[in-house]
Specification:
OB fold (Dihydrolipoamide Acetyltransferase, E2P); 3 helices; single chain; alpha+beta; elongated
Length: 122
C-alpha cells in the first residue's frame, strides 16, 4: 500500500491532500479516514489505497501510521505560569471598558491573545 504525509486537511470542508512518498499528490476526502477520525493534522504519516477518481488520484481506506511530532509542545508553559498570563490578559481586556483599543494597543493585545492561544493549542 502507498504511504505519504498529509499535506493539508481542511476540517470545515472535510478534505485535503496527501503528498505520497512516490511524489504524487493524492486527494483525501474525510470519508476515507478511519472510523471515529474526523480530521488529521498536517504532517501526519498515513497509509492508503488508491483509486482514480474524476479528478485524479484519490485516497481510500486511510490508516494513520504516525502523528506529527509537535516541537512547540515541548516549550509549553506550566499551568501556573499560563494562569498568570491569562489573568493579566483579562485585566487588560477589562480595562478597555467595552471600547476598541487604540491601534498600537490593539496590536499588543492581539499578540498576547495569539500567544495564549498557542499555549492552549494541543
Amino acid at each position: 500500500m502507498p504511504t505519504g504525509k498529509v499535506k493539508f486537511f481542511d476540517d470545515v470542508k472535510g478534505f485535503g491532500f496527501i503528498a505520497s512518498d512516490e511524489g504524487q499528490e493524492v486527494y483525501l476526502h474525510g470519508s476515507a479516514l478511519p472510523d471515529g477520525v474526523t480530521s488529521v493534522k498536517n504532517g501526519t504519516r498515513v497509509e492508503f489505497s488508491l483509486f482514480d477518481g474524476k479528478r485524479g488520484a484519490q485516497a481510500m481506506s486511510v490508516r494513520i501510521l504516525e502523528a506529527p511530532v509537535s516541537l512547540a509542545r515541548r516549550d509549553k508553559k506550566p499551568a501556573d505560569e499560563l494562569a498568570v498570563m491569562i489573568q493579566d490578559l483579562i485585566r487588560l481586556l477589562d480595562g478597555l471598558n467595552g471600547r476598541l483599543p487604540e491601534p498600537k494597543s490593539g496590536a499588543r493585545i492581539a499578540a498576547i491573545l495569539r500567544k495564549v492561544a498557542d499555549e492552549l493549542d494541543a
